[in-house]
Amino acid sequence: MSVNAAPPRKAPPGRWVPWLVIGLWMALAAVMVPLSGKLSSVTTDRAVDTLPAGAESTRVAVLEDSLPGGEDNTFVFVYHRAGGVTDADRATVERHYATLAKRYPPKAAAGADEEGPSTQLSADGEAMMFTLDVSTTYGAPEAVVGPLRDAAKERPAGLELDVTGPAAIDGDMDAVFDGIDLQVFLTTVIVVTVLLVLTYRSPVLWFIPLVVVGAAALTSMATVYLLVKGFGIVVNDQNSALLTILVFGVGTDYALLLIARYREALHQHENVRVAMVHALRGAAPAIVASAATVVAGLLCLLAADLNSTSGLGPIGAAGILCALVAMLTLFPAVLVVLGRRIFWPAIPRFSTAVVEKPGLWGRLGTAISRRRWVATLGSFGILGVLAIGLTGNTGALREQDQFLSAPESVTGFTVLRQHFPELGGQPMTVFTRPAYQDRVLDVVQGTPGVAMAVPGQTSGGWADISVFPTDAPDTTAEYDTIERVRTAVHAVSGAQAIVGGPSAENLDTEVTTSRDEKVVIPLVLVVVLIVLGLLLRAIVAPLVLMATVIVSFAAAFGGSVFIFDTIFGFKGVDYSVPLLAFLFLVALGVDYNIFLASRAREETVRLGTREGMLRALSATGGVITSAGLVLAATFAVLTTLPLVMLIEVGFLVAFGVLLDALLVRSVLVPALTLLIGRRIWWPSRLSRPAAEPPTGPQPVAEDEELALQR
């Protein structure tokens, strides 16, 4: 009599899925990684690409570029000697000018002045200067300024030289951005690595989110490169650096949130795949809502007129989406393949009797519950005191003040203004029809604030005039002069005169940014409010959360302005900082409220409003605080760069994120929720069920287990 052997037990289904996901990402990396290295080849910082096409200075730049020989880069050579220049000094300056004018001859044009510009001696006899216009056909400013300085090195002892002018400043600015992408990437990797090691205290676990976020960053760079090639999006060096910061910051945040849920699930489920499914069910909605909020906020930038600002919208959105996809596919797959041992030495064990300890955040929640008014008023008091800083120096930062350490081009402007006060500003360029050149010249020379106007070349149906204002560059007085010159030349009928130049470009940029703030900021508020309403299915809660974020932004901005003014000694706030900081702090600051509020809504269904909020605070307090520290640290990387604008953005956003994570989300939002009660979820009716559901790990039926594995 034979006995039939029991059929061998089949392996649980779904085991191959993580490996398939990893394989697909490896195939994607093979295509995208080579493309990511090409992003720097399509970045541009030219004003003609950054400003809107309708700006008057943009039209001047386009016209200059279209004329024979291309656009000119203007360099100013300022020689100076204490006690007065000597005859040998004068001969040296004349020789330098002759040599450089021969090496970089002006572009040929009909009607051009045969003699060209000459050297000038200052009224005090202590300085000489000449202006050199170098065609862009010889290279970009950063490629030309070095050889120009080298060519003028041989001079008598004691004769100092500063090569300045608009093109020299552009060249020094580009030198700051040279290699910035690699520097930001490496610094961010180091910062995130240190924070992950401190967070998990594991020799292995920190490495997994770092690798996955790195894959997301490279994929996002390749995606942005394809967007630029396909749709002509403007990417400058600043936006490229912000892309890296965004992907690493939000990607690490998503990893921390998912790991926290996964660790909880591993205590409740023996099978790691089942535990990951439960973790994704709990964390994915909040992560997706967070990403949707940031993406929606970023895409609001498409309404901006400034090309560099509007370009940041799709660039940042692409980065956030790449981080989202990577953290919800590749990251879970790697964690499942590696199993529980990835948490060594603190490996979470499956147990049917998990004892929940109140912990720090549980005790904080209890204290807030007992002193709701104290917590609310105290939080608003702190935020209000910080917001007082908005009364400080919020004036626009001049281009010359952008450098942390003033380069030669900036110090040269100071010397130029000291010895040639009549040429204190950057030259304007006026284009007019040739038949009206003399008439426009007379009008310009009679305009208040103009020190000198010099007729230039006639070419391609246009004649140009170089206009030198008396006031310092990028000051209100100089901008007023530019506006007066524009008004005056526009009044010359038939001349079709337009006014541009470096300071005019800065003026148009500031005016456009001011317009963008008025359009984009309200749009961001409305869009983020709608996303919150859809997520929480309520009206009151989204309004409360948005109000706390706005107050937090005002406090962060005010506190930062105080630091910039009194400690860092900055001479203003860059025009682009308020809009960028508002966008990041509202979109990213709402993230932590989303993580807390979505968990509170989930727990309120089971436990009621009070217990639901306290349970949510206890469960999310540690991970959200860690996420806030990581995001703040990644933005703080920008403060290591030698450019004031990036330092201001990095510091302000980092400070604001810390305020959101440590005060607004940890104290103010729970206190307001407990004060308002269940009305905060209006019109949803969330109440504690009659029967308290059991807590702790529950046995899972075999068919459910298999379904989850699939």
Automatic annotation (TrEMBL):
Residues 688-710 are annotated as: Disordered. The chain crosses the membrane at residues 16-35, 182-200, 207-228, 240-262, 283-304, 316-339, 373-392, 519-536, 543-563, 575-595, 616-638, 650-676. Residues 218-337, 566-674 form the SSD domain. Keywords: Cell membrane, Membrane, Transmembrane, Transmembrane helix. Its main location: membrane. SUPFAM superfamilies: Multidrug efflux transporter AcrB transmembrane domain. PROSITE patterns: SSD (PS50156). It is found in: Cell membrane. The keyword Transferase does not apply. The keyword Cell membrane applies. It comes from the Bacteria. Residues 701-710 have a biased composition (Acidic residues). It is a multi-pass membrane protein. PANTHER family: MEMBRANE PROTEIN MJ1562-RELATED, MEMBRANE PROTEIN YDGH-RELATED. Belongs to the resistance-nodulation-cell division (RND) (TC 2.A.6) family. MmpL subfamily. This is MMPL family transporter. It comes from Actinoplanes sichuanensis.
